[in-house]
Amino acid sequence: MVPVQALELPEQIELDQLCALAGAALERSPLGEVHHAGRSFKLESFALGNPHSDLPAVAFVGGVHGLERIGAEVVIAYLRSLVMRLRWDDTLHRQLERVRLVFMPLVNPGGIWRGTRANPQGVDLMRNAPVDAGQRAPYLIGGQRLSAKLPWYRGVEGAPMQAESAALCALIERELLGRPFSMAVDCHSGFGLIDRIWFPFAHTAKPIAHLAELHRLSEMLDQSLPNHTYVMEPQSRQYLAHGDIWDHLYLQSQAHPSAVFLPLTLEMGSWVWVKKNPRQLFKRGGIFNPLIEHRQQRVLRRHMSWLDFISRAASSHARWLPQGTARERQQELALAHWYRKAAA
Ligand SMILES: [Zn+2]
Fold it and tell me: At what angle do helices 211-224 and 293-315 cross, to 10 degrees?
């Protein structure tokens, strides 16, 4: 029998370096392993800040789709900037006394290694959670059970979630869901021309219970980063999908009625990279990643302010979460902005 070989992706080597740089301030937790073709890949998370369960938390997630490497890199770049700032930034140290920041940059290391959207079993981890969109999800792209050889494969009906999905769910349940306030940011690329920030639901066009909070957050984003180019919207405005992991986790969070959990997905609009360099269409991963280094640097840099905005919004949530009539007003605005307009 061939011995299982531990394999280091470049992203994993960078994470090792960050752990060495940060020392005890960065907690590293093993979440399991996946095996593929005689190789083993670590599933793991990293955390900074105060673990107390009354405090808010944010999870930064990347690499769910192995082909969208830039998502993992954005998360690692943000972690790197925090680790480096720990050396001098007193404001960051004070912030970390009041917030927990959790990172899982490489959810699907086997897919990253293979350069595939799915995991090595052919399962799309964003179609693998036990949530069904009914008849309205689009054929194939909304999730399918025909074959692991086709994209958007959901896995066998009734089977447990894939190891990678299960590890991410366990992390979010343990680190986020019991808290009074938490957020998640899952970084993807490959849809359209502009950067979108999606929130649930993906499986239904109905609004989620925390629409007012999301609308207030989008107002704050407009006011705090005035020239930003993100479009924030429910994923259902673009297409419905089966098995969305954030829909699943959001539904799980409803077991804690007073808790607020706001999961966001960053969909970096990668088609613009292709437009600027059409030849990259023919390269592996070219539709999903900026292949030219200066463009990659620009993408990594561009999202840092937004990720930091999210950390700050979480640690200061008590100042801005709408209550009472202000919340009702936000709810009205949100329905008008995201739902009535869509139905008209
Ligand atoms: Zn993706």
Answer: 120
